[in-house]
Amino acid sequence: MNIRDLRYFEAVARNKKFIAAAEELHISQPSLSNTIKRLEKTVGYKLFERSTKELFLTELGQVFNDHVYHLLSQFDNTVEELEHIKISGGGKLKIGIIESSRYFMPQIIKQFKQNYPEVGIQILEMSPVVIEEALENYDIHLGITTDIKSNQLLRYSPIVQEQLSLAIPKQHKFANLNSINVIDLKEEILIHSLSGFGIRKIIVEACNTAGFKPHILYETESLEMASSLVEVGIGVSVMPDSYLKSNPAKKIKIIRFKNNIYKRSIYIAYHSHRYLPSSFHDLILMIKQASINNANDVGVK
């Protein structure tokens, strides 16, 4: 079994016809059919059920197909990275980040550049769900996220717990308070992220535990947009302190929850089976240290 055999299998599984797959691969149909038969003999079970019109993956064939997809993706990305290193002498690390982590990334990149001046970095702002998908598909090397999924392919390492606070307009009725309880949000209009985002999950669960359903009338993927909506006075929003510290808004007041009860965890995530360059591990250490420093600055653990 070799990479070529796996590519042939993938083409047949995707096209569901030997004729179409053979044309795509620019080989004869008998040659392709023989390769698949040899592959089935090698693995010891049938990969396809054959009919007069189409091919269908067997149950074991589907499992095999899932692994082949990841193997080919890993191989292609490794070749691409090696080629890039050959041309540029460095390489490129691709990082998917949640919005709030953008406020400490510039300093990390500056530090990283001092140690690895020839290595490029591409930063992509993503939701936690997209970060997971990008890691699985080898589109990024590293993710900074708030969600942990039951995924055997991915590894997660906690870097910091971040405090959550309430952002309100300057003229809000809570403006003279130092802290509030979540029950105080019962009559408030909330501006929040879309379903699936970590902060929203935390606050919705807290409100449900307090005995009411939060009135989330406005939704956005962006903390910046949520902040702007709070500024104009149409609602309130729960936000991470890293964002609030880095984006002081004159028209917004920050109210703590009593006992600083609400926090979210932030993790570094990466693919356990992917080739990762040596600079990757130093970058992780830099991110962890920067996250700890940033958390200490805003008073979280």
Automatic annotation (TrEMBL):
Where in the numbering of this chain does the HTH lysR-type domain appear? 1-58
The major lineage groups are: Bacteria, Bacillati, Bacillota, Bacilli, Bacillales
Q: Which CDD domains match?
A: PBP2_LTTR_substrate
Q: What is this protein called?
A: LysR family transcriptional regulator
Highest taxon of source? Bacteria
Q: Which PROSITE patterns match?
A: HTH_LYSR
Keyword set, alphabetical order: DNA-binding, Transcription, Transcription regulation
InterPro entries noted in UniProt? HTH-type_LysR_regulators (IPR050950), LysR_HTH_N (IPR000847), LysR_subst-bd (IPR005119), WH-like_DNA-bd_sf (IPR036388), WH_DNA-bd_sf (IPR036390)
What protein family does this chain belong to? Belongs to the LysR transcriptional regulatory family.
Source organism (scientific name): Virgibacillus siamensis
